[in-house]
């Protein structure tokens, strides 16, 4: 499979090079040149398959130029052994025709582990084969950083720098990044918002001299491998409820648009998904965009679901590309308008196609807390605030039409956000046994100004010292 940039001016890559590149050199995002189709029979054949086997089969057509069949199987098997639940991604019914897909049984308790555990191993394998090293830089609103640091701590070919917004992640999230005592992983607290961190990372990738000097690689959800690994659980869950012979809908708590985009690609490659429901917190740019056709970021607001406190949803560019009929010129025009004027308008034809696949709901802080409380009251299940945003949106969608089951993605373990959960439910969720001493481990943090040059200097010095 070859990969092309959404902006049409970067070299076409195979999977391994798209994996290492992260962001394309023209500032665009890599997407597959064509979308392989999963037939109804191929989907039926996934019934009963253990998660790693299902994941390997879904991912194979996208990666089989670079990895042999046995390697594809062994990568998936290794990626999902560190999960705490035998089903890896268990479905749980919480109401009539309403299910949660629990994606938080991995090492850092959020769905990011699904992609990162796979990507870390795949990247290390490719670098090892080439005798190369890479420097990974990434921005995190909390969970990506923890997942990346955990996934790369044992991967010798890679040096990792994760930027997170100082003081704006939960204690558990921060400690998962700052207590992994390995010389090749670094947590950088930037005095700014997640969007500031993301902008610095994008700017550093845009500095082609720095990029080449440091052998930069990205693991944010702009990396196609992240999206690819997440496509697998949409199939796994839908098949458990009868796909391809019964359609399902998904409600997805959304920030950077990576997770729900994986659902969109699952649909495009053949999974019968009726509705893709975007669930946002009060940072509702995607809800406003779908309603008005105008993509206009506001200031970021801090909420109890901090991993979705985002106003610039990077992966939306991939959807714009697909919904425009794969027109890189349209994408470039929109992105330069965003850069120059701070917003852009989606052409009518593209907007119509987006609205055909997606609906969007904004869940405010009170509704999120009430949802945690009511799920607990009604079925004894504790969900985290991000998952509650998804469940609440799912309920609204079910009111409009209730015939098709809705699967709400439960994206984080409640113990990751114990204060918000306790406020809403009166119950303080406990960390799983293997993380019991997290709050006592020693932290190492570098606090940096919200300034691209300061971050670049720090990375250059630290990576050199470590090399
Ligand atoms: C990252 C994250 C999200 C948002 O996912 P995107 O792919 O950025 O849309 C939602 N919930 C949790 C717990 C997360 O960590």
Which structural class do the helices and strands define?
A: alpha/beta
| Rg, Cα atoms, Å | 20 Å
Q: Mind telling me the CATH class of the domain at 91-110 and 224-425?
A: Alpha Beta
- The average pLDDT is 95
CATH topology of the domain at 91-110 and 224-425: Rossmann fold
How can the largest sheet be summarized?
6 strands, mixed
Span from first to last CA? 34 Å
Strand content: 15-25%
Please state how the strands of the largest beta sheet are arranged side by side: 4-5-15-10-11-14
Task: Indicate the multimeric state.
Answer: single chain
Q: Describe the global form.
A: globular
Low-confidence stretches: none
The level of helicity is 40-55%
Offer a quick outline of the entry:
Helices cover 46% and strands 15% of the residues. By secondary structure, it is α/β, with parallel strands linked by helices.
Please explain how this structure is put together.
- There is one protein chain.
- By secondary structure, this protein is an alpha/beta fold.
- The protein has a domain of 222 residues: Rossmann fold (3-Layer(aba) Sandwich).
- The strands form four sheets. Strands 4-5-15-10-11-14 form a six-stranded mixed sheet, with helices on both faces. Strands 9-6-7-8-16 form a five-stranded parallel sheet, sandwiched between helices. Strands 2-1-3 form a three-stranded antiparallel sheet.
- β7, α7 and β8 form a beta-alpha-beta unit.
- α6 packs parallel to α7.
- It is globular.
- The mean pLDDT is 95.
- Pyridoxal-5'-phosphate binds next to α11.
């Amino acid at each position: 499979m070859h990969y092309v940039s959404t902006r049409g001016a970067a070299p076409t890559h195979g999977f391994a090079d798209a994996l290492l590149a992260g962001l394309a050199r023209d500032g665009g995002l890599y997407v597959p040149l064509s979308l392989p189709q999963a037939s109804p029979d191929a989907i039926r054949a996934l019934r009963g398959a253990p998660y790693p086997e299902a994941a390997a089969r879904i991912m194979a057509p996208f990666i089989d130029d670079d990895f042999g069949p046995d390697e594809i199987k062994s990568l998936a098997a290794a990626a999902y052994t560190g999960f705490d639940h035998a089903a890896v991604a268990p479905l749980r019914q919480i109401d009539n025709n309403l299910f949660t897909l629990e994606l938080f049984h991995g090492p850092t308790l959020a769905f990011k582990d699904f992609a990162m555990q796979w990507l870390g191993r795949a990247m290390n394998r490719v670098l090892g084969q080439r005798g190369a090293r890479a420097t990974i830089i990434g921005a995190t609103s909390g969970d990506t950083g923890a997942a990346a640091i955990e996934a790369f701590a044992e991967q010798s070919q890679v040096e990792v720098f994760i930027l997170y917004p100082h003081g704006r992640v939960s204690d558990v999230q921060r400690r998962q990044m700052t207590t992994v005592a390995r010389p090749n992983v670094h947590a950088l607290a930037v005095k700014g918002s997640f969007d500031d961190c993301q902008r610095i990372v994008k700017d550093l990738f845009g500095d082609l001299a720095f990029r080449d000097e440091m052998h930069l690689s990205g693991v944010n959800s702009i990396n196609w491998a992240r999206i690819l690994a997440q496509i697998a659980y949409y199939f796994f869950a839908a098949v458990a409820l009868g796909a391809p012979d019964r359609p399902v809908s998904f409600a997805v708590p959304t920030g950077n648009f990576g997770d729900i985009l994986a659902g969109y690609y699952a649909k495009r490659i053949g999974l019968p998904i009726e509705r893709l429901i975007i669930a946002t917190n009060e940072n509702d740019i995607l809800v406003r965009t779908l309603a008005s056709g105008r993509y206009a970021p506001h200031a970021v607001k801090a909420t109890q679901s901090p991993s979705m406190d985002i106003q610039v949803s990077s992966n939306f560019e991939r959807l714009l590309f697909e919904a425009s009929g794969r027109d890189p010129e349209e994408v470039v025009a929109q992105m330069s308008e965003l850069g120059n004027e701070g917003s852009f308008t989606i052409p009518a034809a593209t907007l119509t196609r987006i609205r055909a696949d997606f609906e969007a709901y904004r869940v405010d802080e009170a509704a999120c807390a009430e949802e945690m409380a009511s799920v607990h009251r009604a079925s004894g299940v504790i969900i985290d605030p991000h998952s509650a945003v998804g469940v609440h949106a799912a309920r609204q969608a079910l009111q409009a039409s209730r015939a098709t089951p809705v699967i709400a993605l439960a994206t984080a373990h409640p113990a990751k956000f114990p204060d918000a959960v306790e406020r809403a439910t009166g119950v303080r969720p406990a960390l799983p046994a293997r993380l019991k001493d997290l709050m006592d481990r020693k932290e190492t943090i570098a606090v940096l100004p919200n300034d691209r040059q300061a971050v670049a200097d720090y990375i250059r010095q630290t990576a050199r010292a470590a090399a």
